[in-house]
Amino acid sequence: MDSYDIPESTSSRLKDHFIGATPLQKRLESVRKLTSFVPPSPQRKIPQCSQLQEDVDPQKVAFLLHKQWTLYSLTPLYKFSYTNLKEYSKFLSAFIVAEKQKGLAVEVGEDLNIKVIFSTLLGMKGTQRDPDAFLVQILSKSHLPSENREGKVLWTGWFCCIFGDSLLETVSEDFTCLPLFLANGAETNTALIGTWFQKTFDCHFSPLAINAFNLSWMAAMWTACKMDHYVATTEFLWSVPCGPQSLDISYAIHSEDAKALWDSVHKAPGEVTQEEVDLFMDCLCSHFHRHFKIHLSATRLVRVSTSVASAHTNGKIKILCHKYLIGVLAYLTELAIFQIE
Amino acid sequence: MSVLRPQDQLPGLNAATILLVGKEDALLQRLADSMLREDCASSLKVHLAHSLPLPSDVNRPRIDLIVFVINLHSKYSLQNVEESLRHVDATFFLGKVGFLVTGAGRDSHCSVHRSTVLKLARAYRSPLLFCDLEVEGFRVSMAQRLVRMLQVCAGHVPGVSALSLLSLLRSSENPCLEDL
């Protein structure tokens, strides 16, 4: 199936094989590589505070925290330009108003005075090569001029790319790679925005589902993060596939205890290996089995919630900690890139 | 603790026995039914087991092929198979063991990564088959394939032995240098 039989000790990606290859060759190689590897490579960095994070104003990104975001993966955008953001705002507002008026019934009192704003998010990137993240907001214009001009935010969505090197290498100049899209707000608005982007930039959105394997990686990585104080307990939700209704098992532990368990499992500083993740989850499962005689490994992990962030298998996440924002997004970007490819 | 050995018993006349090991009761049962419906010159026997070792007090015929069934949706099934592998004698792995993986189609439900089972199959030098056992059509074609493999392993196909089948199956993938 694959000719890369990499010994366990290798942790770097195979960049040195691709010197002088055309973008198409690089793309083929990267696809083969990804289908043969564990999509996070056997060792992986614990999310550190990235140097670029110093540029990010905590107040500016505070609105990204404590909100539930629905994840989508997005193929590269064709001929997207950061200088045309005002025009994009105008076109998108016109499109949304037109679509809403096409509807069969216009609700009385529905506010069609909406405004769309495109803005760049500075500092939301992993390396200098990553394209800038940008934000789209739908605001309702306030009728009364005496009130503050901005109006209520109806919908927020933002596009970002954190450490997206594996995708950036294989894509030509005309494309902007922002594989991760996060949306908060009404589903109808998300669909409208998605349609407009797909028509304008020839890209494709698809919902990003997170499987149990990746959720357990996230649980381990986020438990490994050093926090000054824990705002939430660490909680897991398992779904038992049985009969007509599925049962849910919720397992909550104190975050300090989870960190203590992780520290006893963890060996190499700065790296997380597959064995450590497996051991961490096995410890939790065997503890549960000792008390309740239920094999959690036969059930499906659907939700992980820690003080850093929480994630559900249907692609909804909530980030709670400003310090590890980039780290969380880096992993999600990797999942999005894997789904695109 | 009894260990399964391939040459423990004499072969039965025109009999071929396969042992399916796995925790997924319903899937194994359906696979067994599909296999028994196949047209086959030998008389087929399908044994099902949750795990090894098998109870030693039962009189059973010589086992020609063991297939370990792993469900990617459940880490428990993988752990069970890894435990059971210890009770199989090394000489069985000369073509008379196979791994069957189900559940790879629904990636959102997977708790075990494909490369884990790939590494397992490579470590035991045995063929790895992927099949979604819940879908009727795939299950029937996998049953046909297993019946042919079983006939070879029981020695009912002249000119092909289990070991030669193993090397034929392996050369269809890119050979790893360490295997030589």
From TrEMBL, chain A:
Protein family (similarity comment): Belongs to the CENP-L/IML3 family.
Predominant localisation class: nucleus
Cellular location(s): Chromosome, Centromere; Nucleus
UniProt KW Plastid keyword: no
Any one Pfam family match given in the protein's UniProt record, by short name: CENP-L
Organism: Pipistrellus nathusii (Nathusius' pipistrelle)
PANTHER family: CENTROMERE PROTEIN L
Keyword tags: Centromere, Chromosome, Nucleus
Domain of life: Eukaryota
Name the UniProt record assigns to this protein: Centromere protein L
TrEMBL record, chain B:
Subcellular location as annotated: Chromosome, Centromere; Nucleus
InterPro entries in UniProt: Centromere_Cenp-M, P-loop_NTPase
Gene3D superfamilies associated with the record: P-loop containing nucleotide triphosphate hydrolases (3.40.50.300)
Keyword Nucleus: yes
Main subcellular location: nucleus
Keywords assigned: Centromere, Chromosome, Nucleus
Name listed for the protein in its UniProt record: Centromere protein M
Organism: Pipistrellus nathusii (Nathusius' pipistrelle)
